[in-house]
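Database export, one record per block. Field names are fixed; values are copied verbatim from the stored entry.
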Amino acid sequence: MTAEFDLVIRGGTLADGTGAALREADVAVKGGRVAAVGTVTGKGGQEIDAKGRLVTPGFVDIHTHYDGQATWDERLAPSSWHGVTTVVMGNCGVGFAPVREADRERLVELMEGVEDIPGAVMNEGLKWNWHSFGDYLDAVEARPRDIDVAAQLPHGALRVYVMGERGARLEPATEEDIAEMRGLTAEAMRAGALGFSTSRSLNHRTVKGDPTPSLRATKAELMGIALGMKDAGHGVIELLSDFDTPDAASEFEMLRSLVAASGRPLSFSLAQAGRSADGWKGLLAMIEQASREGLPIRGQVAPRPIGLLLGLQGTLNPFIAHAAFQAIRSKPLSEKVAAMRDPAFRAKILAENDALQKHPLARRVMQFDQIYPLGDPPDYEPPRESAVAVDARRRGMDPAELAYDLLLGDEGRAFLFSPFANYSNYNLDCCGEMIAHPDTLMGLGDGGAHVGIISDGSYPTYLLTHWGRDRAHGRFDVPYLVKRQTSDTARAVGLMDRGVIAPGMKADLNVIDFDRLRVNAPRMAFDLPAGGKRLLQGADGYDATIVSGAVVYRGGEPTGALPGKLVRGPQEA
């Protein structure tokens, strides 16, 4: 008997991406699209028994940094391990096109400094077979991959391309510069860019310590770029700014003017900063007011603390500034562990603590009252009493001693967690407020970036498990959480053809064993070009992930199918 459909998922519990109540339904797929939802009598060439399983649209992650990895890797892990079927890269104003040959190293240094991707990895992996942004998209499109990818035009690359050294030195753009940026922006949008991104943060610097080229871009420059998107008729704006008081209101007013003049939607990173526990609320109030006035401005938010992973295999650990540790820093892990288990070496490192109290790096990674054992399974909402300093006092130890011992756990593979945002009050209540707000978007996972210190590409899984099942209070309904990272994110960037399970929509789907779903502990892999290392964090519970009707992962393992495509610009339903 000839199969009527390519794939039928039978008897699953459907969270269809609209926020509607869960219901039992079959989902049939044909030609890469959802063909039917409900009771499907026709047979599928392939069938998946989803009884007792959660069936969702594929997740759409709008904040990643796979700009380099997408040119050399067919698997966009870790995102594709967490039910993500579409990623948007080119965030925070960093990327690799447009580019002149003389500026390639400058863009590598910027990406290394801002996103903690080693220069050696990029120099080995990037083929630089592009010049314009359109050329870059062609290079991305040429490689088959597991999931779909969309790209944004990065301000850092655009500014250096147009202004050269003047742009890198933060000089103001001339009228001629702005006109050229406007034209190149329109050209990039027409070539398939999904939008434009920029950074106005002092924290974003090159590996040499120079500020990001876009830091002091004037309103006139940003307006010219926004109008370039208007000229092309599409494009979203993604931005990171420090919004330092008392300039937050004037900075936000400038953003309002960009959106009002161009008609283009804008989103920016929103989090509870450690130094200002309630500053995010003021920004959210401004977003609310803009929304009431019809200006499409949203805050991109995270479902857990943003923080550093400190470990012997990572970029940082509490003893990274100690001279004794520097002597073993480059040794293989087993040799590091052997050295650190020597009581004489332990005493030598701990003896340096007092002398390092004013070292800026040591202060950051030795704030033991705000550092916690991560554990396995990882705990991203640890109680205050589990902080290293509190536990050490309970044991009658110096906090540095306890941190030292904890780092040696799992043969030196253990991590400590140092949250610097979304944890000022020692709980995730602020994240709950942000998740619930209609003017926010789920984002900030940074998949593909911060490979030695952060592993937040697992956000989609954590959002479902922690906020939909495991948290003791303040949980959300699963359909709402699914909607937040499917149709909400897809529509925010103009991808109207995905994010909902309905006939005619793109057949990007997940089949999830929700009871078994969990985020695994991060581990260090050494699989980047030039033998580079990166933190990877997997998940249990994904029975199947499907892209354009093809099963790309089954039980967490790749099937070999690589249906992922480059998404050029917004997509109609």
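Remark 1: The first strand starts at residue 5 and ends at 14.
Remark 2: The CA atoms of residues 56 and 446 lie 22 Å apart.
End of record.
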